[in-house]
Specification:
The chain is α/β, with parallel strands linked by helices and about 325 residues long. The chain folds into two domains: about 160 residues, Bordetella uptake gene, domain 1 (D-Maltodextrin-Binding Protein, domain 2), CATH 3.40.190; about 120 residues, Periplasmic binding protein-like II (D-Maltodextrin-Binding Protein, domain 2), CATH 3.40.190. The protein contains eleven helices and ten strands. Strands 1, 2, 3, 4, 5, 6, 7, 8, 9 and 10 form a ten-stranded mixed beta sheet that branches. Helix 6 links the parallel strand 5 and strand 6. The protein is globular, with a radius of gyration of 21 Å. About 45% of the residues are buried.
């Protein structure tokens, strides 16, 4: 009679299999946590355009920037867990748990399912061309000579750009004035206009500004130099021990059926392995980064611990 037992189980599971195979059978709403033009937006558009081409179903971008991604996350946490609303967010999602402690309308770890990471980001320390510095050491010296006079922009309190700069300030003993914008894109525009004099930016989002000399790069945040820009030194070469990289990831609301999570994850894996998608990301100095949902869950937990300790040490009160 064992065959009857297994037949019954198969009957129970068959609707889930059909559902997974059919998904998605209508357009998918993609909530992007930052405004157009920044690294989160650029990464999301490259990857989800790949998903559209692969699955023959449209993934519709919806930028909901503001408050370092917490506006988008609060909206997203209320959506139906049916797989038809996905969120593209960054490591800022974890940092916000500490920077907005007691003020968030959602539980950072429990109200979301991490489907996979999409790309790894390297930040670059850039300055306005009028600033009389061409190296990290010169920038530090100028900031110490003129305490509080250098304005630096970020994508908002708690953004990866903000955390990177506060870590830099902590490690170098410099005093600069923070100016928060609604995303990396607006922060970059503020820098090239001269409204701010320096900032961390995701390298891929400012490539055109570097090539047109509207920004000057003086150091990258990774442990090693970036192959596309080998002439830009690492910040660690001047500030021993400095390293900061972040990720962009895809999320689903908590409660989304596992078969949908796995289906979406498997499709992301194929897209991220596509040479064309990889080339588009690499061109912007972004690196494809795939994880299983289980691996991403572990990364989120470890980042939660790491960001908590980092922010306690470095973030402005």
């Amino acid at each position: 009679m064992k065959w009857l037992k297994w037949f019954g189980i198969a009957l129970l599971l068959s609707p889930l299999v059909v559902l997974a195979q059919a998904y998605p059978d209508k357009p998918v709403h993609v909530v992007v946590s930052f405004p157009p033009g920044g690294s989160i937006d650029v990464t999301a558009r490259i990857v989800f355009n790949g998903m559209t081409a692969q699955l023959k179903q449209e993934f519709v971008m919806d930028n909901r920037g503001g408050a370092a991604g917490t506006i988008a996350a609060a909206y997203f946490a209320r959506q139906d867990p049916d797989g038809y609303t996905v969120m593209a967010h960054s490591a800022t999602h974890i940092a916000n748990a500490f920077l907005y402690k007691g003020k968030l309308q959602y539980d950072t770890l429990n109200d979301f399912i991490g489907v996979t990471t999409l790309a790894k980001q390297v930040q670059v320390l850039v300055v306005h061309p009028s600033l009389p510095v061409t190296s990290v050491k010169q920038f530090i010296a100028l900031a110490k000579k003129r305490p509080g006079e250098i304005n630096y922009g970020t994508g908002g309190v708690g953004s990866a750009l903000h955390v990177a700069m506060t870590l830099f300030r902590h490690m170098t003993g410099t005093n600069m004035t923070h100016v928060a914008y609604r995303g990396g894109g607006p922060a970059g525009i503020a820098l090239i206009s001269g409204e701010t004099q320096g900032q961390f930016a995701t390298l891929g989002s400012v490539v055109s500004y570097l090539r047109s000399k509207r920004m000057r790069a003086i150091g990258v945040s990774s442990a090693e130099r970036v192959k596309q820009f080998p002439d830009i030194p690492t910040i660690g070469e001047s500030v021993p021990g400095f390293e900061f990289t972040a990720w962009v990831g895809a999320f689903l609301p908590a409660g989304t059926p596992k078969n949908i999570v796995d289906r979406l994850n498997s499709q992301f894996k194929k897209v991220l392995a596509d040479p064309g998608v990889a080339a588009s990301l690499n061109k912007l100095t972004l690196e494809p980064m795939y994880m299983t949902p289980e691996q991403f869950a572990e990364r989120l937990k470890s980042d939660y611990k790491r960001y908590g300790e980092l922010i306690a040490r470095t973030t402005e009160k």
